[in-house]
Write a structure and sequence with these properties.
Elements (H helix, E strand, L loop, with lengths): L1 H19 L6 H10 L4 H29 L23 H8 L2 H10 L1
Helix pairs in contact: 1-2, 1-3
Length: 113
């Protein structure tokens, strides 16, 4: 009875991972396929591993695409030399403007020159 429950859990996981890839396959359909092709525990584990890998790969690709399209800087800036302080509005705008004239920023500008 433990093997049947384990197989059912594998069918559920594979079905969920396939759904995340856009493939609609029910756990019952997977069970029928496994019986039809005489799949044992090793084959089911391999099927689970493949769909897990593909779901993770798809997730990583989506994140990479969203990062590329987001216009976020890919590298961390080392100085504020190219930062536009005039775009800052609100309560702390004055402090940010004074930061532009601070000694630390001036040192960073002269160091880069």
């Amino acid at each position: 009875m433990g093997d049947t429950e384990d197989a059912a859990a594998v069918y559920d996981r594979v079905s969920a991972r396939a759904a995340s890839l856009g493939v609609a396959i029910a756990p019952e359909e997977l069970a029928e396929l496994a019986v039809r092709h005489s799949m044992g525990g090793g084959e089911l584990a391999a099927l689970d591993a493949v769909f897990s890998y593909l779901a993770d790969k798809r997730h990583d690709q989506v994140i990479e695409t969203l990062l590329k399209l987001s216009r976020l800087p890919q590298k961390a800036p080392k100085t504020f030399a190219g930062f536009d302080f005039d775009r800052i509005r609100g309560r702390d705008a004055g402090r940010c403007a004074s930061c532009r004239r601070s000694r630390t920023c001036m040192r960073a500008r002269t160091w880069r020159s």
